[in-house]
Amino acid sequence: MIASRLIVDRDFVISELDRRLFGVFVEHMGRCVYTGIFEPGHPDADERGYRKDVMALTRELGPTIVRYPGGNFLSGYNWEDGVGPREKRPRRLDLAWYSTETNQFGTNEFIEWCRALDIEPMYGVNLGTRGPDEARRFVEYCNHPGGTALSDLRREHGYEKPHDIKFWCLGNEMDGPWQICRKTAEEYGRAALETAKLMRSVDPTIQLAACGSSTHEMPTYGAWEDRVLDHCFEQVDFISLHTYFENRRDSTAEFFGNIEVMDLFIKEIVSVADSVAARKHSSKRIMLSFDEWNVWYKARTINDLRKPGWPEAPRLIEEVYNHEDALVVGGALITMMNNSDRVKTACLAQLVNVIGPIMTEPGGRAWRQTIFHPFAQASKFGHGRVLKPVVDSPTYEAETFPEIPYLCAAVVDDRATGTTTIFALNRHLSDEMELDVELRGLGRERTLDHALELYHANMKAVNTVEAPTTVAPAVNNAVSVDGERVRAKLKPGSWNVIVTTAR
Ligand code: AHR
């Protein structure tokens, strides 16, 4: 048994949590759209072709914003191909994923799907094969009320009211050698600036995110953000971050170190963005959009990334997640909450089938992967102000990060309801953790509303279509509340959510 303490104070606040932290990503890749969210002819599809089983699971997952349509796909996409009468839409070669894109699902179908689920859309503009002109035309098509050729075209397509898309990404991973029409930082910074100016002229209410580095390991990391922001600082609101966690050495303890690296990554990008602000003598603060993040390393061979013969909706990167992956996803959510003063939006990549928390079979069932659970619980209970956690925990040393506390925790307090939620990982692999929490100034008379854990004795346990609940949340009976103190026993290698309300 190891012991850890966690102390928070009602007055020590990191930030109000931006609910857009619980976003996801839908790309035209593999089976995320086709046979994922959209499958006309599926026994459970509605009249528009949306799979109702996937919609129900998406509701339960609780994303607040969804990024679309890519990803690498974005850099070769013509938005015009995906609007208007379906029978006239072109079939195209998708050079990002070597697939055939039928364009049977496009902007308007996506917006309708978002509205049906009450999720905000986050839209990307192609800065690979295209540029500022197409981007401003696209904003006009989507957001202008009417009376111009492009806004009237949307109305002709059956959408009288503007889509009012607020959040836009200026391209995708433009630093990556794999990107269609990759750019240097100078080229991209200039393109982002000019594109942003035109898009904002059409709709001054939009928010814009510039591409940061594709990964923390890129050779141009840091310098890329500095140069890009040097160009477009005045015109953008966000810089993006992407990361995919890998269990490179098949060591759970090392794998957990990625959570600390994510924290470092965020703090480094904040420093770079603020140093650009300093150089410009500006008090403006660029916020962070962590708009692609997840675990992804098992389904990463060339055979996972492309299939021969330009197929439609091939099975690409259908990573099967295990228990330790769910713990890392939980740790990433904790890290982003604890950096919520600067990380305002984030997207788990992706939603369905393609490195997704939801899996489907074409014509068949849908089920929850292990990583579904920490995300759904964080979105459900993550409301209010994030309090600064003071963690007193034994640590261990790893190659991925030199000093890793066994306890990884975030505390969110919702003043409106008096509810305080503790999210906690026990990263010790063999010992239970005795956790002692002090909730200072948050009310002495408290009820324990929920004590939930995600635990499995086997780190490699997975959920499948035949056994979809092998890894699933359960009640933790070893939790008690006494005045301002919460005491809990956390199982080794477990994710925990404790919800308590002041009476
Ligand atoms: O999410 C899969 C791919 O990973 C995205 O298309 C790309 O942006 C990233 O490299």
TrEMBL record:
Coiled-coil regions, chain positions: none
Gene Ontology biological process: L-arabinose metabolic process; polysaccharide catabolic process
Start and end residues of each Alpha-L-arabinofuranosidase C-terminal domain: 291-494
Domain of life assignment: Bacteria
Hydrolase in keyword set: yes
UniProt subunit comment: Homohexamer; trimer of dimers.
Similarity comment text for this entry: Belongs to the glycosyl hydrolase 51 family.
Record's protein name: non-reducing end alpha-L-arabinofuranosidase
Origin species: Paraburkholderia acidiphila
